[in-house]
Amino acid sequence: MSNIIKLLPDAVANQIAAGEVIQRPASAIKELLENAVDSGADDITLVMKEAGKTLLQVNDNGCGMSALDARMSFERHATSKITKADDLFSIHTLGFRGEALASIAAIAQIELKTRPKEDELGTCLTIEGSKLTGQEPCPCKEGTSLSVKNLFFNVPARRNFLKSNTTETRHSIEEFVRVALINPSINFSMFHNGKLVYKLQKGSFKKRIVDLFGKVYDERLLPVDQETELIAINGFIGKAEFAKKTRGEQYFFVNRRFIKHPYLNHAVTSAFNELLPTDAFPSYFLHIEINPADIDINIHPTKTEVNFKDAKYVYSVVHASVRESIGKYNLTPTLDFDIDPSLTTAFHTRPKEDLQAPAITVNPDYNPFENIKTGEKSFATAGFKKGPASGDPNWENLYRNFENKAGATVTQPTEKENLFALESEYKEEQNEYRFFQIHRRFIACNIRSGVMIIDQQKAHERILFEAYLKKLSGQQQASQQQLFPREIHFSPTDLELLKTLQPELTRLGFLLEGNENSVSIKGIPADLTDMDIAGTLEAIVEDAKNALAEPGKEKNIRLAYTLSVQMAVKAGKTLAEAEMADLFDRLFACKVPETAPDGKKIVGIVSLSDLEEFLK
Ligand SMILES: Nc1ncnc2c1ncn2[C@@H]1O[C@H](COP(=O)(O)OP(=O)(O)OP(=O)(O)O)[C@@H](O)[C@H]1O
Ligand SMILES: [Mg+2]
């Protein structure tokens, strides 16, 4: 047989290779912007026409290239960024493979103008489908300007695969945003079809986020800042209350490179846990700095994936940092007192020394269910005694860490403290002010700065949720033995699901015995009535089914959530004043009193000035 294997001509090989790196205008934009960042520029402009299909151009004021380098830069595997294999373990640039320009040049018409600072004349070079069509010295600005015209002009099949201009523009903008986000010390502008789309001035990371996503983000972000021996993580997460139904602004950067990492995404979202509704996605903008030797970025042609040497460790640091940030800062902004100087109540005019540090006083032995009269789901009026102990130990630790980290006592009261100050404010004035119910849905209470409104159902859900979670993580709870065990019918698959939850259910006080097509209820939690049992178990099974469809939330959290929603006092239930006071006390003894387990707001304040404004 004659020999049939032949080397492909360079231009064809390049075209094939280009397919991996350049799929659409957005991929070329990414490569050009990354080259511009690597060039040390502090001013970068992207110009696009027709979603980048006919023109995309990146101008930078970086280091520029000599005439020889300008020519070399389009050769495959020609790079100034690494010289030997070992360098792969210490990559500090975005590029390193020397492939991008060769790939782009294989499938487009290129015009490059470049001049290093020290040279008087620059180089102008044109290439078409990998072929050099012109090179000459020319006067040009310091830095580099690279135009890519008619992408895929010689690969009609690829060109036909491009989506509508709207879709391609969206992809292109997304690439621009990713690079611009993590390089806030660089000015960026973007023009599309002659119109300015973005003009971003250098500044802080937060400023860059706000400039890109809108002013509202100024209020929505919580800082994340953590350094361990191996990694540093900083950036921002969006407050839970602003989480979106669509996977929106979720950005991970590793060593200033945007990456997609489902595992780390889970680290963040699970840190939000019960604060988020099941179908909502939090926003985050997080930057991880790590020794390049501890990651492998060379696993995907577009360099948007990374392998960590110790992914579990990175996961745990990300998770803990986000959790700490939520714990430290995540409180409803409306609970922040903007003290109006015109309000000169005794509290305001009192000399500073007299001010008592607000304290949390919660009885740790308190069982929230002692108060619930079996059968009625109503709040008992007595039984909640305040003791000297503090709230949840985990929360306190988080908070303490924060203080230690700051290295000094916190002089400005945090929002959390404000919240407790709010509670003490209420206590101070409780002789004078009363709770009253609005339309059997909301509880209103006078506070110094206005009126506080609490959603009764949501508040009770939060109280029960935390109580159930505590039960689930502790010992088996007291169960009320049923004299005549009741049978509830379930399909075999539902029964299987129920069985997988048996340990948790037992811990909550359910004593269940599975038969062929039913369970017999031998015991139920002390605070649940016989009446509720079927509906509650059905809701638990239903939720377990949903959990299979969209895993992510921990079992205990789902269970506690389902039960709390089932058991909470509903809107429409009349509450006695003492019951309202009890609910208030128990709500503010919760870890997260301002947000319901589904992420909805529980507490809001209508300020006096709001009321004045309303009545103007
Ligand atoms: N805007 C620019 N300013 C200065 N030099 C540039 C610029 N763009 C490219 N270069 C030079 O051209 C070389 C080739 O660029 P190219 O993007 O093809 O490869 P790379 O960036 O080294 O690696 P990768 O393929 O991973 O992007 C770079 O190493 C750099 O020296
Ligand atoms: Mg590059």
Structure characterization notes:
The protein has 616 residues and is α+β, with helices and mostly antiparallel strands. It contains 20 helices and 22 strands. The protein has an 8-stranded mixed sheet with strand order 5-4-3-6-2-1-7-8. Strands 9-10-13-11-12 form a 5-stranded mixed sheet, sandwiched between helices. A 4-stranded antiparallel sheet has the order 16-17-18-22. A hairpin with a 2-residue loop joins β17 and β18. α2 packs parallel to α6 (165-181) and α17 packs antiparallel against α18 (555-567). It starts with 9 loop residues before the first helix and ends with a helix. Mean pLDDT is 79; it is low at 331-422 and 424-432. The structure holds adenosine-5'-triphosphate and magnesium ion. Adenosine-5'-triphosphate (ATP) binds at residues 31, 35-36, 39, 60, 62-65, 73, 78-81, 95-102, 144.
Oligomeric state of shown chains:
single chain
Structural class: alpha+beta
DSSP summary, beta strand count: 22
Low-confidence stretches: 331-422, 424-432
Heteromolecules bound: adenosine-5'-triphosphate, magnesium ion
Question: How is the main sheet built?
Answer: 8 strands, mixed
> How large is the radius of gyration?
31 Å
Helical content band: 25-40%
What percent strand?
A: 15-25%
Overall geometry = elongated
Q: Please list the strands of the largest sheet in the order they lie side by side.
A: 5-4-3-6-2-1-7-8
User: What's the total helix number?
Assistant: 20
Mean pLDDT: 79
The separation of the N and C termini measures 97 Å
